[in-house]
Amino acid sequence: MTTDNAATHKLSPGRALSGPQTELLNRVVSFCEQHHRDESALFVIEGAAGTGKSVVLNAIFNTLQTRARNGRGDDPLQGLQNMVIVNHPEMLKLYRNIAAIMPNLRKSDYERPTTFINKSAKTGKRADIVLVDEAHLLLTRPDRYNHFAQQNHLEEILRWARIVVVVFDPLQVLKFKSHWSVDLLDTFRKGRPSETFHLDTQFRVAASPATRSWIDALGQGRLLPRRKDPSFDLRIYDDCAMLYADLCACNAKYGLCRLLSTYDYPYTLNGEDHFITEGAFHLRWDRSLPTEKQPWAERPDTIDEVGSVYTIQGFDLNYAGVILGPSLFYDAAHDRIGVRPERYEDSAAFQGRDGIAAPDEAKKRVILNALNVILTRGIHGLFLYAHDPALRKRLLQT
């Protein structure tokens, strides 16, 4: 079993890579060598949740920075100015924590996209190579509340870097203001050198192919027959309090077990605690602690909180407990999970709908994307509880 610093270990540049990950590292480094004098080049890394995208990205960056800072004079990557960008505060904490213990990495090598763009515009200096983790979280429209006045994060990053390497998964788009699609990403490939590499080996969920298919289907709203799997602990609960008790027992034994929920219960950033109640179960949402240097998933005290997609995206857990909240129900007519966007409490996810075709369907897609993210966190187990009694009953029948 992994321990409570599993995320830091997982993303360590010293971690051994698989064959495809090593091939990807070599491909990206070769791409950078070939195009380091070009005005603009784009490399796209695609892959579903759990395929090791962030792992290999940080290994690539460590290789680039080692050569940039220690390379010989004839090394084409020597002296280059490189960055990693991620629009996810919890992941940024993790990357900076790792940088503090690596000889060729610095905390200042990692930044949020808006900060990078605004600093570059102010100084007029371009970076050489920029790696973007979780590129599906980049903004696709202005967000003046967060000081981004331009139209598209990636467009601006390409403006301020010679080579851009992005990690992308369209099934992890969570907001209208980050409304990415494969087609939209394709528009940025045109007119510049571009390569794509797809990672498809699942490294996180240590389950049989049948169980992984069951989880993947659930994240799309589909209900498949469930098979016994001795390699993965998949449980459906009729009692949320019992789920939490069992999860706490697993956490005491193995560590790195956390409870998560769809964003279907009221939560406001007002400094107060907000709670999720399901029968005898009553627990607060995760607290917003922007000054906390340790990511939410790695803090031992957060077993006493319920995490959201925003605190857990990009992280691994040994066991994940997941509450399917009121926005999800059993659609008996189609024998699948139905979605009620009006019950989804993340109103910010649906701001900026201009230009989005079929916004009602897009809302459902965002909710299912968020579900997909939280369902795919557990390495060794997944415990499920549904708010809707009919959905609970149907899940128990799978």
TrEMBL record:
InterPro entries: P-loop_NTPase, SLFN_3-like_DNA/RNA_helicase. Residues 41-388 form the Schlafen group 3-like DNA/RNA helicase domain. This is Schlafen group 3-like DNA/RNA helicase domain-containing protein.
